């Protein structure tokens, strides 16, 4: 499996994934930068993603929905706060309604994705920071840790082509 470690730090309100790939940073970056490639791994296998909007520039948005096995749709968004291609990406991540509007009653988290050269390949760190312990507990209880582990686990096959 691609994911090498998952660190859930309740004191720091962070959930951090570290994954390693036998690919260049540019190749891993392309899985984020190309909306059709993002669709192939961002949702867990039983909840594939469909990207609606994809603007990876500071201030830009990515909107998408994941479709469950029963046809149920779960909408979400990212608001990009920083982009340094092909090294890093920062965004606020939240839930949306069926029209793509943010759901204010659900928590958001700030996520930083960093790519670095490592042992002939690339190491990706994906760190989510939560506003409160309650927000972190709610999102992890909804399956965020398991879901992201499954998502990231799909990246190797795409990189292999």
Describe this structure in words.
The chain has 161 residues and is α+β, with helices and mostly antiparallel strands. The chain has one domain: Alpha-D-Glucose-1,6-Bisphosphate, Chain A, domain 4 (2-Layer Sandwich), CATH 3.30.530. Helix content is 24%, strand content 43%. It contains five helices and eight strands. An eight-stranded antiparallel sheet has the order 1-2-8-7-6-5-4-3. A hairpin with a 2-residue loop joins β7 (109-118) and β8. The protein is globular and about 45 Å long.
Q: What structural class do helix, strand and pairing data support?
A: alpha+beta
Sheet with the most strands: spatial strand order: 1-2-8-7-6-5-4-3
Radius of gyration: 15 Å
Strand and helix order: EEHHEEEEEEHHH
Described by strand count, sense and barrel closure, the largest sheet is:
8 strands, antiparallel
Supply the CATH architecture: 2-Layer Sandwich
CATH topology: Alpha-D-Glucose-1,6-Bisphosphate, Chain A, domain 4
Oligomer: single chain
CA-based shape: globular
Q: Strand tally, please? A: 8
Strand content: 35-45%
CATH superfamily: START domain
Number of helices: 5
Low-confidence stretches: none
Helix content: 10-25%
Mean pLDDT: 96
Number of domains: 1
């Amino acid at each position: 499996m691609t994911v090498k470690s998952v660190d859930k730090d309740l004191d720091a309100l962070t959930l951090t994934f570290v994954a390693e790939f036998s690919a260049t940073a540019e190749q891993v970056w392309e899985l984020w930068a190309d909306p059709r490639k993002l669709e192939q791994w961002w949702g867990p296998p039983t909840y594939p993603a469909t990207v609606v909007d994809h603007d990876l520039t500071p201030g830009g948005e990515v909107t998408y929905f994941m479709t469950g096995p029963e046809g149920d749709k779960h909408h979400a968004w990212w608001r990009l706060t920083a982009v340094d291609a092909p090294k890093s990406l920062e965004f606020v991540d939240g839930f949306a309604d069926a029209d793509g509007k943010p759901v204010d009653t659900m928590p958001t988290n700030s996520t930083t994705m960093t790519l670095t050269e490592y042992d002939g390949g690339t190491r990706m760190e994906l760190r989510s920071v939560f506003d409160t312990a309650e927000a972190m507990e709610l999102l992890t209880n909804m399956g965020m840790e398991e879901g992201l582990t499954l998502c990231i686990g799909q990246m190797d096959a795409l990189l292999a082509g």
